[in-house]
Structures are given as C-alpha cells and as structure tokens.
Amino acid sequence: MAETAGGSSSDPPPRKWREVIKHSITGLTALGIFGALVFQGVGTYLQYLVSKDQLAQSQEANGERTRAQASKIAVWRAWEVDQGEVQIQVMNRSLDPIGWLTVAMEGDYRTGGKVHTGTYTFGFGTVPPCTLLTISGKDGFYHTRSQKARQFINIKIDAIDFSDTVGRHWYETDGEITQDSTAHIERGERRLTAIREGEYAETGNLEVQKVKTSEPAGCGEN
Description:
Distance between the termini: 99 Å
Order of helices and strands: HEEEEEEEEEEHEE
Mean pLDDT: 81
Helix content: 25-40%
Shape: elongated
Structural class: alpha+beta
Strand order of the largest sheet: 7-6-11-4-3-8-9-10
C-alpha cells in the first residue's frame, strides 16, 4: 500500500491531533487549578491555626491581667507559737485597695468548760494596698449578737469574697479564686442547712475590734 504525501496511513489526521492537544491542555489547566486550590486551602488552614493560637494567647494574657490583683489577696489561719494563740491574717499584696472583703469561717470557742463550734462572717469596707492584717482569735473579735468579745481556740476559713479595684467581684471557696459564684453559693446553702439542723452552737456576725497592721513581703511583685 502506498504512503500518502503527509505520512503513513496510521498517523491521526491533523484534526485528531488538535483534539488530543486541546484535551491535554485542558487537563493540565484543571490540574494546575486543583493544585492552586489545594495550596490556597493549606495556606488558609495554616493562617487559621496561627490566628487561633494568637487568639488563645491574647485571651490567656487578658485573663492573667484580669486576675492579677485577685491572685494577690489571701486570708488564712495562722498560729502564734510563742503565745499559743490562733490568729487570722488578711493580706492584700497588690498596689491597689480591695473593697467589701467578707470572710466566712468556723470557730471553736470554750465556755463553761466545754468547747463549742460556731459559724461566723466578718468583713472590711476596704483593705488598703500593701497591707497585712493580723487579728487575734483571743481578743480580736466582738460578737454582735452576744455583745461580748469572742475568744476562739481554733479557726477554719471557709470562704471569702471581695471586689477588686475596678469593681469586679471575686470569690474564693476551697482555695480557688474565681468570678463564678456557683461554688460560693452552694457552700452558703450547705452552711444554712447545717445551721437549721443545729450542727453549730452559735452563728452570727463578728466585728473586728483589735487588729495589727504591717506590710507583707514582696508587695507588688508577680
């Protein structure tokens, strides 16, 4: 069989070559678009991860700034070894005052040769900055109901609450400082139930009548 002038009889016609080239270009273009979309998607996801991390860091920093003063407030029971006397110490280690500090506590006191347990609250309108208050359990409290000084031989701090310098309210129950009052309210409800059931010999408010003031170590430090 004779060959044609343009090539062998097995070669595809020019039109077929054009179709093959056209489809090849279309496929390469689609592949390129797909690759670009994948690259863009990966870039967008990485940008999302970076933004999420930055947001988390910003929220953490804001939370630390919000808690900065609250974390420097503490109330605890102390013991004066030399005098054998239980005490309460109230500390504001920040450079700003706090307001409306209220302390809930249990206290054991002795009357008539017997030891009784009561539940009490006492507070301060303001605790100045850089201040450590020491209250004697022996003669530092005045019981408003009995109109007498209450002498404690043991004290347990149950909870505190206070307002920071910008008016945010804080609660500490079971050693955790938070702006969520849920645990604080639950503790109060348990306390009221115990009072109704007669678990305490005495309840009421205390007024601080004797207090020593000093400056805590490391005032203003983180």
